[in-house]
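Lab notebook, bench 4. We co-purified these components, and the gel suggests they stay together. Before we commit to crystallization screens, I want a quick structural picture of the whole thing.
Request: model the full complex, all chains together.
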Amino acid sequence: MGYKIKSRIWIESENNVLLGEGRVHLLKAINDTGSLSKAAKSLNISYKKAWQLLDSVNKSAKKPVTINSIGGKGGGGAELTEYGKSLIKAFDEINKNCWAFLDEQLSKIEQL
Amino acid sequence: MGYKIKSRIWIESENNVLLGEGRVHLLKAINDTGSLSKAAKSLNISYKKAWQLLDSVNKSAKKPVTINSIGGKGGGGAELTEYGKSLIKAFDEINKNCWAFLDEQLSKIEQL
DNA sequence: AATCGTTATATTTGGTAGGGTATAACGAAA
DNA sequence: TTTCGTTATACCCTACCAAATATAACGATT
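Here is the predicted assembly.
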């Protein structure tokens, strides 16, 4: 008893990562803040890292996940597309299902 | 189309890792070779890393996973206990089941 | 007691992923 | 045309982790 089973899942498209937990966190933060730089701050990661993550997400997705605007009112910003929002939702669902599935499987170890 | 879902699972006991894919590979190699140093060579990892992995496995397991002998015929060696063998088997099973489960879940992303 | 190939461990060396910093480009609004 | 806070990108630099190296300890066999 006392064992825990943990997991990391991610989705790839031809050797680029589309979505993982970090990327999903970032997308949620973008949705909350309306900008990539604010999202980076709220997650305590550098803007550079956040930008690299978001860039790779948008490059490997079939449709745009965010719309980024440079300049203009407030300097610009980033917001999720409907596709982006649905991706987050689907990923979270899969992740939760996976946890539940694995928790049940763990008994195979504990009963040894 | 074209998306792949990948996963890493591991089992912890009070914040130490008991088993993960790397550790399972190592245990299998120990089983095949009869020694930790040979196992490390066959996996192209340093002996040190292999030793650290094995040490942490044995420290976090309830019962010994390997029996290591120093000195003696052939200098010593390491071999899996029955408990160790059953751990490997259970982990592999869980992992395979997880892959199958996730592959089926992936449709949630692909149909978006 | 000498040999051997291990396990076990400390110390040093090196490669690289990531952070820090700087700056260009941008466009709406005043 | 100036200001502003963004997005976007290049460059250096360092902190960390992993690898390499060295060496002690060990015990069956001869």
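Strands of chain B lie at 3-13, 16-19, 66-70, 76-80. Worth comparing against the SEC data before the next meeting. The domain at 17-110 of chain B is CATH 1.10.10.10 (Arc Repressor Mutant, subunit A).
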